[in-house]
């Protein structure tokens, strides 16, 4: 492990924050300033000179002051960076739509470059007519728009054995949420004329790993989308440009990128990604397979280890994200005392099916320590469990599908830490 | 066939050569296997040339690269080792995956015979066959791996959802809250660029952290 892995990721943000707080007026309430603020009383450069012209940035990036809102990787997690994972900076985002440029990546043989001109999609197997589509063909089918979360099956997986990584980005950031435009897979299967014997579809990507997965026909015909736009624009290279599969509510591994083939079959392939990987070992050594749905889950994104409280006691916005692969989030409860008592948070908007939901608890911080937790509920009545409850059923070696309640220990100085509590 | 309401007349018929080029998947009953064979000793040579740099001479894995052999009987242990021999249910998967996606960085360069030989060598490395063994399209599907019966279909609907559904506790849910594990004690989180050194403000651990950083292999 290299030297650079040694310190707490919140350190810089924390120091920066406390410095800022110390420099300004921090007293609670609308206190009177001791002296006039020169940022107001003196004419600033931006209020006098000129900014950039409209030709300066044909396609813009965030302003430099937001340079810490970026994807991060954790070197020790994987053997190399090609078959690896990085993390969305959820601690710094708000609302529900993930900016594509910092939305997490997970590849098994790297992010490939595939031009629309070179793109082909094959539908074969138990169909009347096996078909080949070009990218241009796909754009001529009727389209739909949907917002869905894509959560890696391994999100929070490193936390099974205990509190390991110090920040919501690392513990919960294998997720993004986008508005997709695409064609229902059902439309393409009907175009090829799928057989009644077709109980499964096998989907694979154009990359070397292929990432082949078997999906039951019922799901394929229900809401699976062959998507080519996300958040209004073409998919990013690293997210499957020009075409990916969107599998609402199901584990991210099945959202096959650079989708090149859909085979209608009478049985599952039992590929590497649904036998060796994405199977969940229980305490007795047997393993669950085909654990497709991502259960209801939530996390407080702020305050959190990378987003400490820097403003002192007084009004505090506790906020976070909730989601469920079974449908819409109906309620999120927040505890400040490690689960002794709970308050129901405010949803920014009514929960949408299989999409991230933003919650807020507008509260007053007395400056004391808190054990912050959030607990999601979805429209099936399912309540997000504790890690203890999950372990009682599954043991410690499931790797995937850890949707436990997260605890942040917020100290009197506003700093927060990833902990487990009894 | 189901009756479809409407067709758009988009796309064109896939040619047999095109389907053959892309339709490489192999199912557990051996459907999809091309003709061919390979023995353990040939596999040892091919493995040494094309696989051992990452997976080790005996498929035992180098550094953090996947181990393909060993770990028998460890699935219920605290730290299970999941390999083709200890964990994988079907030999078809090994053939299919090696054929389509290995070697890492040079996928789809193996001949069918090379793939049969490599898979035969992986079986040998797992003590599942002797060094005379020949794997072919005729005997692959009938070869049963040790953990073939080790998987159950997702049972969360029976074992979890009923007990975690309903109105949850809101007040007086527990009396005691104690910190039992702290990420700061493990200290394995990447640092932000430019973060100040030596400013660790977190107090000494009150609880021994039992968790080791555990690479989530894939």
Q: What's the layout of helices and strands?
A:
The complex is a heterodimer of chains A (422) and B (218).
Chain A: H1 10-23, H2 38-41, E1 84-85, E2 106-107, E3 120-125, E4 131-134, H3 135-138, E5 144-151, H4 168-172, E6 175-184, H5 185-192, E7 200-205, E8 213-216, H6 217-222, E9 225-230, E10 233-234, E11 244-246, E12 259-265, E13 280-281, E14 287-289, E15 297-302, E16 314-323, E17 329-335, E18 343-344, E19 346-347, E20 357-365, E21 370-378, H7 387-394, E22 407-410, E23 416-421
Parallel strand pairs in A: 3-12
Antiparallel strand pairs in A: 1-2, 3-4, 5-6, 6-9, 7-8, 7-12, 9-10, 9-11, 13-14, 15-16, 16-20, 17-18, 17-21, 19-20, 21-22, 22-23
Chain B: E1 12-13, H1 16-22, E2 37-39, H2 40-50, H3 52-55, H4 91-101, H5 112-125, E3 134-136, E4 151-153, H6 156-159, E5 179-182, H7 183-186
Antiparallel strand pairs in B: 2-3
Helix pairs in contact in B: 2-5, 4-5
Descriptive notes:
The complex is a heterodimer of chains A (422) and B (218). Chain A has 422 residues and is of the alpha+beta class. Chain A folds into 2 domains: 72-160 and 176-289, Oxidoreductase, molybdopterin-binding domain (Sulfite Oxidase, Chain A, domain 2, Alpha-Beta Complex); 297-419, Sandwich (Immunoglobulin-like). Chain A contains 7 helices and 23 strands. Chain A has helices at residues 10-23, 38-41, 135-138, 168-172, 185-192, 217-222, 387-394; strands at 84-85, 106-107, 120-125, 131-134, 144-151, 175-184, 200-205, 213-216, 225-230, 233-234, 244-246, 259-265, 280-281, 287-289, 297-302, 314-323, 329-335, 343-344, 346-347, 357-365, 370-378, 407-410, 416-421. A 5-stranded mixed beta sheet of chain A has the order 4-3-12-7-8. In chain A, strands 5, 6, 9, 10 and 11 form a 5-stranded antiparallel beta sheet that branches. In chain A, strands 18-17-21-22-23 form a 5-stranded antiparallel beta sheet, with no helix packed on it. Mean pLDDT of chain A is 94; it is low at 1-27. Chain B has a two-stranded antiparallel sheet. Chain B is extended and about 70 Å long. Chains A and B meet through helix 1, strand 3, strand 4, helix 5 and strand 12 of A and strand 1, helix 1, helix 4, strand 4 and strand 5 of B.
């Amino acid at each position: 492990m290299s030297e650079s892995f040694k310190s707490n990721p919140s350190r810089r943000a924390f120091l920066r924050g406390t410095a800022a707080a110390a420099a300004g007026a921090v007293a609670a309430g609308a206190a009177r300033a001791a002296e006039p603020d020169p940022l107001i009383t003196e004419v600033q450069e931006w209020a006098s000179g000129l900014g950039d012209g409209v030709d300066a940035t044909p396609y813009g990036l965030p302003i430099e002051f937001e340079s810490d809102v970026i994807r991060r990787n954790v070197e020790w997690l994987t053997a190399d960076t090609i078959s690896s994972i990085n993390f969305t900076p959820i601690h710094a985002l708000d609302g529900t739509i993930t900016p594509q440029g910092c939305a997490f990546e997970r590849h098994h043989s790297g992010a490939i470059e595939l031009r629309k001109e070179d793109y082909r999609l094959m539908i074969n197997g138990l169909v009347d007519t096996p078909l080949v589509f070009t990218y241009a063909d796909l754009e001529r089918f009727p389209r739909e728009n949907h917002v869905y979360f894509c959560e890696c099956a391994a999100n929070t997986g490193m936390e099974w054995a205990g509190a390991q990584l110090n920040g919501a980005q690392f513990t919960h950031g294998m997720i993004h949420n986008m508005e997709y435009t695409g064609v229902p897979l059902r439309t393409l299967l009907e175009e090829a004329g799928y057989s009644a014997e077709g109980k499964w579809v096998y989907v694979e990507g154009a990359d070397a790993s292929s990432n082949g997965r078997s999906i039951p026909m019922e799901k394929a015909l229900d809401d699976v989308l062959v998507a080519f736009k996300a958040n209004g624009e073409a998919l990013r290279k690293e997210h499957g440009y020009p075409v990916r599969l969107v599998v609402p509510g199901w584990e991210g591994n099945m959202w096959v990128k650079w989708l090149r083939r859909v085979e209608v079959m009478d049985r599952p392939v039992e590929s590497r990604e649904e036998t060796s990987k994405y199977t969940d070992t229980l305490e007795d050594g047997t393993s669950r397979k085909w654990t497709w749905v991502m259960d209801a889950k939530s996390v407080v994104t702020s305050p959190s280890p990378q987003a400490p409280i820097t403003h002192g006691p007084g009004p505090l916005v506790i906020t976070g994200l909730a989601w469920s692969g079974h449908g819409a989030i109906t309620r999120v409860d927040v505890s400040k005392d490690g689960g002794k008592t709970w308050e129901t948070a405010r949803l920014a908007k009514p929960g949408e099916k299989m999409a991230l939901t933003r919650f807020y608890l507008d509260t007053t911080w007395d400056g004391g320590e808190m054990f912050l937790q959030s607990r999601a509920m979805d429209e099936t009545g399912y309540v997000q469990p504790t890690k203890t409850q999950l372990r009682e059923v599954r043991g410690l070696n499931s790797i995937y599908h850890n949707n436990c309640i997260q605890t942040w220990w917020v100290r009197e100085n506003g700093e927060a830490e990833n902990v487990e509590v009894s | 066939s189901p009756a479809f309401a409407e067709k758009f007349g988009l796309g064109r018929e896939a040619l047999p050569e095109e389907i053959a080029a892309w339709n490489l998947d192999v199912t557990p009953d051996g459907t999809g296997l091309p003709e061919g064979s390979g023995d353990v000793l040939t596999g040892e040579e091919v493995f040494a040339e094309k696989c051992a740099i990452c997976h080790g001479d005996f498929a035992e894995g180098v550094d953090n690269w996947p181990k393909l052999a060993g770990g028998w009987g460890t699935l219920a242990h605290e730290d299970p080792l999941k390999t083709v021999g200890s964990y994988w249910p079907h030999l078809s998967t090994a053939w299919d995956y090696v054929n389509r996606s290995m070697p890492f960085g040079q996928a789809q360069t193996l001949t069918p015979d090379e793939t049969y030989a490599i898979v035969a060598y992986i079986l040998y490395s797992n003590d599942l066959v002797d060094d005379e063994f020949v794997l072919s399209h005729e005997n692959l599907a009938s070869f049963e791996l040790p953990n073939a019966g080790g998987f159950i279909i997702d049972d969360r609907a029976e074992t979890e959802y009923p007990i975690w559904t309903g109105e949850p506790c809101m007040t007086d849910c527990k009396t005691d809250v104690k910190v039992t594990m702290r990420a700061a004690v493990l200290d394995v989180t990447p640092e932000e660029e430019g973060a100040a050194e030596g400013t660790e403000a977190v107090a000494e651990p009150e609880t021994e952290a039992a968790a080791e950083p555990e690479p989530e292999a894939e």
